[in-house]
Design brief:
This protein has about 100 residues and is α+β, with helices and mostly antiparallel strands. It has a domain of about 70 residues: Alpha-Beta Plaits (2-Layer Sandwich), CATH 3.30.70. The chain is about 40% helix and about 25% strand. The protein has a four-stranded antiparallel beta sheet, covered by helices on one side. Strand 2 and strand 3 form a beta hairpin. The termini are far apart. The model has no long low-confidence stretch (mean pLDDT about 85).
């Protein structure tokens, strides 16, 4: 009886290790992209910080008015650069991803 229980535990342990090593299909990948924009004042920066973080998948937004850049960190399984550019255009800000 002890041998059967021991063999079952070893089998479960082996299956657990095998599952842990397989990559997840829906694994979230976080991407950080810097956008060049036409913002030129604190009011524009406020529009960005009040709107872009609420787009689906966006994790973090940092605005730098001096360099006219907006850094956005997002989940690539939920959004992409094109969707974010459209979100910027909704608030009348031109944005292009920096290469």
């Amino acid at each position: 009886m002890k041998k059967i229980i021991l063999m079952c535990l070893v089998a479960l342990f082996g299956i657990g290790i095998a599952n842990a090593q397989e990559p997840k299909k829906n694994e979230k990948t976080t991407v950080t992209v810097e956008f060049l924009t036409d913002i030129d004042c604190a009011g524009c920066a406020k529009k960005v910080t009040n709107t872009i973080p609420y787009e689906k998948g966006v994790k973090d937004v940092k605005v730098d008015v001096a360099t006219k850049t907006v850094t956005v960190t997002y989940d690539s399984s939920k959004t992409n650069n094109d969707t974010l550019v459209k979100a910027f255009s909704k608030i009348k800000i031109k944005a292009t991803p920096k290469k």
